[in-house]
Write the structure tokens for this entry.
Amino acid sequence: MEIIEEIYHKVVEGNVSETETLVKKALNKKVAAQNIMNDGFIRALNLVGEKFSAGEAFLTEMLTSAMSVKSGMELLKPLLAKSDIKSKGTVVAGTVAGDIHDIGKNMVCMMLEGAGFKVIDLGVDVSGEKFLQAAKENKADIMVISALLSTTMRNMAETVRLVSSAGLEHKVNVLIGGAPVTQDFAQAIGADGYAPDAAQAIKKARELLHIS
Amino acid sequence: MAVMTRRERVYAAANHEEPDRVPICFAGAAGTYITECPPDGRVCSQLYEYLGLKDAEPIQLTDAFSQPAKIDERVVQRLHSDMAAVGPNAPRAIVESDGTKTWPWFCGMRIRRTGYYDEPFDFPMRHMTTKEDIDAYPWPDLSVNIMDGVVERAKYLHGKTDYFVVGRSISTMLPFLGYALLSGMDKWITDMKIRPKFYRQLSEKLLEIGLASNEQFFGGIGQYLDGANINDDLGTQVGPFMSHDDYLQFFKPYTVEIIKNIRKHLRPEAKIILHCCGSVYYAIPDLIEIGVDILNPVQPLAKNMEPWRLKKEFGDKLAFLGGFDIQQLLPLGTTDEIREGAKKLIQEYAHGGGFIFATSHNIEPDTPPENIVAAFDAACENGKYPISEAGGETYVDFIKGLRLQSRQLGGNSPL
């Protein structure tokens, strides 16, 4: 459908205002919200994400594409809420205790939402207790924890311990990332997954829940 | 070879000649300092205690970024530093009733303690999207004197010590980093795509402010300086912030302007030192072209920033200051591993000069003091020319092979 193709291109371009205009136009034409999401947003984010991981697109492109999807999703949400379309999974996300850096976490949140997940963004400097409480209250499938500082990474281990102590280690998948974080560290603390960038975080989230 | 003065040693390295030994820098340029984060992260105080300094002056902190305003000279010498820095005497930030800070002189930056660090927050320029917003902003008074005691300090370092003297000022963070510190990193990144006209308008204004302060500072002490430190951050851990085309359009011209304006105050032999974190490999040819002489902090675990790669591709045209990993090796390694790492780093970078040993950024609160001393002592012990050839695994592979992050959870970090 032509208008969805236009939306796709505007998201890839990172054009926030034109994405919004086109989504409104599509909805006026009674295009299904699910189709806009799958063929407009998710397809575009997949492309930008692959380019980012390959070093062909950068934070500028990722952020503006994610912002385009976020603005479009605000228009789709009321329709999706009324429909019987289930979200792909529930995610609680935040930057670890003692750390206020959030660009990566924000991108992951925007992209997960655009990909059909329900996302509860807990913000920054999030204690392990707050992560756990949010996971329990929202029956989260995935807990996304981000850290930019090597000095705050240790707090991720504490959060994983809390999840395990609460008996949730088989229910809540802990997915971690951030500049100083490595696969090695993720394995050592017992996290369920690690992603080196936002694009791969979305792939990992799908893998953890065995969805495409 | 006869023992050189500190200044001769650094100049030789910066000029791609082999000095008597590899120069070392601690607290002598941006990104070569140590943090101090009371109450739980007093790494500078711990270093003082470890070195037996019972009579050091109480540590006063900078307004942002949790660094001591002054390091005890005995520590600088104990860590073999060949460089010393001088900064402006700018008006301090105001402490608000809720404990946060506002810094009118640095364009109203807002600062708050989160976790260990004093960090920017509550970004005062975040609302801006138009020229009218820029015009309405309470910009700092550029006539404020920032030079009380500064000329005297620079003259003293130049005339009465043999340090390689570096002038460094936070005003060189304008326009960038300043744009990010005052608007939020995400707004800086996205403004250049979503509202490029406004991006240029705000950048021009920030540049104007920065150049005015730089003029006062470098204009006042340029004759005494061996190095002028400027600041940009062009990369993340995994790559550039932006495409190379975007860098050329939205970033590079401003750095050209900053360097041009500082250069005219310096002696011809003085060096431009650029502090530029992250994976910046993509921009190095541009940096060389626009007159950067020394690149810092050369974060080794960032993508394409391995010492062997930078030395091989750019080592004849660019000198490197930094390189000793603080993300994993310095805080988490044993002292033996640290010594081995220092040796490997020097072997990869220091042939033919062109290298000044330093940490790959300011030393963080998770670092045992014995590790700090071991790193700098090892740099001194292994730095005598001629340098032995590198062998075995590379410096970066050595660090990665230690798997320090998985070891840390049962390790001896002070955290």
Q: What stands out?
A: Chain B has one domain: 6-91+132-408. The longest helix of chain B spans residues 196-221.
